Amino acid sequence: MTGYTMYGSEMSYFSGKARAYLRWKGVEFTEIAPSPAIMKEEILPTVGWPVIPVLKTPDGEFIQDTADIIAHFEGPIGAQSAIPEGALQKFVTYLLQLFADEWMTLPAMHYRWNHNEDWIYGEFGKNAAPDGTPEEQYEAGKAVGSRFKGFVPMLGITPETAPGIEKAYEQFLADMSAHLEKLPYLLGTRASYADFALIGPLYAHQYRDKFTGEHMKRTAPKVADYVERVIAGEGREGELVPLDDIPVTLLPILKVALAEHLPVLLNTNEQFKAWAETAEPHSEVPRGVGMSDFSTGGCSGVMASRTFSLLRLQDALDTYQILMPSDKRRTDAFLSAVGGDALKTMRIEPRLTRRNYKLALV
Ligand SMILES: N[C@@H](CCC(=O)N[C@@H](CS)C(=O)NCC(=O)O)C(=O)O
């Protein structure tokens, strides 16, 4: 497993997820922050849109999407798998990925763009104009960063929702700190897939961004320590919790995640279904299919209904729908305990897939 190149960045949410996994898995890879030339000459002609992380294999194949990057190394290689074997732990892993990838974008983007804006422009600028003066780097960074800042309103991040986003994040830090009192990783004494997913929001934005990171280290040092361990690829030894159990200390996190995210997912699914009724078979799916009301930390707002979230949800539902009866009974009891009853009957129809690095109908 040599000769892999990951086009990624220290400032990028999903690069952190992929990097943590690749290190944990022991993959030899070189990470390169894509210059404008790499973006134009390598990523755009193959992947078709400007995105990171992108993994280039020794055969010259390009893999985009962190789930696909991880899947590339899981399975037949014979080494330790990141995905738990236990049915309930596997299902919860995909629920945690859904939360980490698709809901934690709220605090990540809020804190970056409302508390670290000037600082992050400087960071983007170090990549975009490595030889420039600090002023030139700031301007170059602003040109790059403006595109990402542009996502803030469609995530429903406004002055009205900001206090709720902060309240929910503080609650998450408290719940995660309580969990880490009991276990060093989400599902045991070793790291697994859900830990890599959580590193997406927790590393680049919540730990590495200057002011947010200082806040985490001051108020939730156990979470900061966890982030340092997972991003370093630690946690290869140890075990997952025996008997396919879910640590009770994860329940508060999952309850809030489902209470806040599920209404948005249900509404997005309805809007997606309505869109699909008139769509051509196998067509590309738009990134948004309308707007959804949401509530977080007691504040309400409106956000774009993002179709990609349904793909991550589909992975969780797929594991649920093939459960053996005894696993299903345990999983149903678990879902009732965390407020996830709606998932028992939910279907993504038509099914989603990824084609040519984009979301598409199967
Ligand atoms: N779901 C993808 C998302 C990748 C992604 O959103 N990357 C961000 C940077 S962290 C990006 O480049 N976004 C550009 C865009 O969304 O247009 C994954 O898991 O890899």
Keywords, separated by commas or semicolons:
3 domains, Glutathione S-transferase Yfyf (Class Pi), Chain A, domain 2, Glutaredoxin, 14 helices, globular, binds glutathione, alpha+beta, 362 residues, two-stranded antiparallel ribbon, 8 strands, 11% strand
Task: Summarize, please.
The protein is an alpha+beta fold and 362 residues long. It has 14 helices and eight strands. The structure holds glutathione.
Identify the strand order in the major beta sheet: 2-1-3-4
Instruction: Catalogue the ligands.
Output: glutathione
CATH class designation of the largest domain: Mainly Alpha
* Biggest sheet descriptor: 4 strands, mixed
Q: Which secondary-structure class do the elements indicate?
A: alpha+beta
User: What portion of residues is helical?
Assistant: 55-70%
Domains, number: 3
- Number of E strands: 8
Distance N terminus to C terminus? 31 Å
Number of helices: 14
Which of globular, elongated, flat, extended, rod-shaped describes the shape? globular
The portion of residues forming beta strands comes to 5-15%
CATH domain topology of the largest domain:
Glutathione S-transferase Yfyf (Class Pi), Chain A, domain 2
Mean pLDDT: 96
Question: Radius of gyration from the CA trace?
Answer: 20 Å
Query: What is the H/E order?
Result: EHEHEEHHHHHHHHHHEEHHEE
Give the second-level CATH assignment, the architecture of the largest domain: Up-down Bundle
Instruction: Please mark out the parts with pLDDT under 50 across 5 or more consecutive residues, or reply none.
Output: none
